[in-house]
Amino acid sequence: MQCLVIYDIPNDRARQKVADACLDYGLQRVQFSAFTGDLTRAQQRALFVELQHRLGRRDGNVQLFALDEACWRGRRIIQQEGRDA
Question: What confidence score (pLDDT) does residue 2 get?
Fold first, then answer.
């Protein structure tokens, strides 16, 4: 199942640890604080526990969204690269 992990973590070290965990689970960065990828339900649970562990007692907001195929296909993307006008 496709998953989206987003987070807002003020502490640089904790933020990097969370990003590293997402990469360890094979997720791909789509924004500075957003990752997507295909995870089973067991992997989702394990990742979320790992993210809680890596965040520790530091401030932060981490959210994991499991998206069914219809939701994933319905996403819209704007991606541009170029010079500012």
Answer: 95
Instruction: Domain 2-70: state its class.
Output: alpha beta
- What's the rounded mean pLDDT across residues 35-40? 96
**83 Cβ neighbours under 8 A, 6+ residues apart:** none
The b/e string for 34-50 (b: 16+ C-beta within 10 A; e otherwise) is ebbbebeeebbeebbeb
Residue 63, phi then psi, degrees to nearest 5 = -130, 135
Q: Where are the domains of the chain?
A: 2-70
Q: What are phi and psi of 47, to 5 degrees?
A: -65, -45
